[in-house]
Write a structure and sequence with these properties.
The structure holds 2 protein chains of 2 kinds. Chain A is an all-alpha fold. Chain A is about 65% helix and about 0% strand. Chain A has 12 helices and no strands. Chain B is mainly α. The longest helix of chain B is centred in the middle third of the chain and has 30 residues, at about 50-80. The chains are: A mainly alpha, B mainly alpha.
Chain lengths: ~350, ~170
């Protein structure tokens, strides 16, 4: 697989270029997290008919910077009875797990940090590192709420990984590749070539479209559960568990959990955008198609998905634990199996 | 040293150091969490051997599945039943016997390793291992594949049965 990467083309494949390739998504995550914090504040305000932050900077756009400065200034408290090494390590593990997935996210035709053939499988595998970090933080805090939150979170993550994996697997069957860049290339052309509309092909694909739309919805719902977003935020439900696994964390360590959560939101949005919404392809064939426009389309598609996540958070109430398991195992999983079989049948007949 | 050699020593050191922590740590939670780094190091070594699929499967199965299971097991048994799961210490006699046995085995392995004439062959870099693995699994090794899936199904049914009984 030819690795197309504009930094390697410009600088050659040396040490500095590799460091640049590794750190570019990090800068993106930091800037994106600030934008997402502002979006969360503003969208929540609009949904509740408020103005939101208005005083920090014009129209409140400096509010996220103020928030970050506040977090850095806060005292870093370690509970007396906490297990110190694991307590301090947990935020780093969680952020590593979240950031590792950025290695295969195709930002543009000419920029993907590592265009490996097993991209989609890799994203799924590194997600489990975050789960270990959650348990580590929850256990090391030596707090009942933290432990309960961590347990709920991992149970939920494992349950919802299965429907999400089925959704992704169906697209892998349809595209017959796990390379995210190849999946993007298959979806070029008009927007009806996107995999949410059955992928490229003649008009006979029309009967598979309901199934692929269903799969994209299943993936979106499961991804909400995996990132602990409302309506699946029972691991950190304020009214029951204070704040779940990060109850005891403060200051910069809390900020790392925060960044990891927003990075995870972006990753699931990016996967959804890549495998269902055409990634860096323009919706209108060659109109505004190109490497830089590609990054524009990709980021705006991913941001739209993030926006829907925020929108849902301020609209829906929270599930109960038993409802959550019911939805995961008895609703999403059978539907995803049916969709998977339909897509496989379609691929066999094609 | 090029980057690949540095990476090899890095992953090798990671595996060995945290493997030692797993064995020698008095706190069983440290042992369980150190496994994370050991498994990760092994996955890194697989990548350097061009076995990309195996490496990611290693992360998926061992870190995402087995390690979570181990940690949950340790965490829940200690907190709920009140029984402390500890990595115990051994008596002097057991320690001496194990020490001698391990040294003998290690020396034998080292001698075998250095005296064998290893058959080294230049292998062209594989484009993608997953296609070959998939084809082989569903043609030459179909029986083993199906047997494994039957075993897993039986395990799931058995687990559900045990969990249902009050």
């Amino acid at each position: 697989m030819e690795n197309v990467n504009f930094i390697y083309d410009l600088l050659g494949k040396n040490f500095i270029a590799i460091i640049l390739v590794i750190s570019l998504p990090l800068m993106f995550v930091l800037v994106y997290a600030l934008a997402a914090i502002l979006a969360e504040l503003k969208v929540s305000a609009w949904i509740q008919e408020r103005l939101g932050p208005m005083r920090t900077g014009p129209w409140g756009i400096l509010q996220p910077i103020a928030e970050v400065v506040k977090l850095i200034q806060k005292e870093d408290i370690t509970p007396d009875k906490a297990n110190k090494p694991l307590y301090n390590l947990a935020p780093f593990i969680i952020f590593t797990g979240a950031y590792a997935a950025f290695a295969v996210i195709p930002f543009s035709e000419y920029f993907v940090p590592a265009g490996i053939n097993l991209g989609l499988f890799y994203v799924f595998a590194v997600g489990s590192i975050s789960a270990i970090g959650l348990v580590m933080g929850g256990w090391a805090s030596n707090n009942k709420y933290s432990l309960m939150g961590a347990m709920r979170s991992v149970a939920q993550l494992i349950s919802y990984e299965i429907p999400a994996a089925m959704a992704i697997l169906s697209i892998v069957v349809l595209a017959s590749t796990m390379n995210m860049q190849e999946i993007n290339k298959l979806q070029s052309g008009w927007f009806w070539n996107w995999f949410i509309f059955g992928g490229p092909g003649s008009i006979t694909k029309i009967w598979v479209i309901p199934f692929t739309i269903g799969l994209s919805l299943i993936y979106f719902i499961s991804s909400l559960a995996e990132t602990n977003r409302v309506p699946f935020d029972i691991p950190e439900g304020e009214s029951e568990l204070v704040a779940g696994f990060h109850t005891e964390y403060s200051g910069m360590k809390f900020a790392m959990f925060f960044f990891a959560e927003y990075a995870n939101m972006f990753i699931v949005a990016a996967i959804l955008a890549t495998i269902f919404l055409g990634g860096w392809n323009s919706p209108f064939d060659t109109f505004m198609q190109g490497p830089i426009w590609g990054a524009f389309w990709f980021i705006s598609k991913a941001f739209s998905v993030v926006f829907v996540q925020i929108w849902l958070r301020w609209t829906l109430p929270r599930f109960r634990v038993d409802q959550l398991m019911y939805v995961g195992w008895k609703v999403l999983l059978p539907i995803s199996f049916v969709c998977f079989l339909a897509v496989s049948l379609f691929v066999m007949l094609k | 040293m090029d980057l690949v050699t540095i990476a090899f020593y890095f992953f090798g050191a990671l595996t060995i150091i945290f493997g030692a922590v797993v064995v020698f740590s008095k706190n069983i939670m440290y042992s369980a969490f150190s496994l994370l780094f050991t498994f990760f190091g092994i996955a890194g070594l697989y990548v350097l051997l061009n076995a990309d699929f195996l490496a990611i499967t290693q992360i998926m199965i061992y870190i995402g599945g087995i390690l979570v299971l181990i940690i949950f097991g340790v965490m829940l048994t200690t907190r709920i039943t009140g029984v402390d799961v500890k990595s115990g210490t051994m008596g002097k006699f057991q320690l001496a016997t194990t020490g001698i046995l391990t040294t003998v085995i290690a020396i034998t392995l080292l001698i075998v390793f250095s005296s064998t004439k290893w058959y080294l062959k230049e292998v062209p870099a594989v484009e993608s291992t997953v296609n070959d693995i998939g084809n082989k699994l569903l043609t030459n090794y179909l029986l083993a594949f199906e047997a494994a899936s039957m075993l897993l199904l039986i395990a799931i049914v058995g687990a559900a049965f045990i969990a249902r009984k009050k």
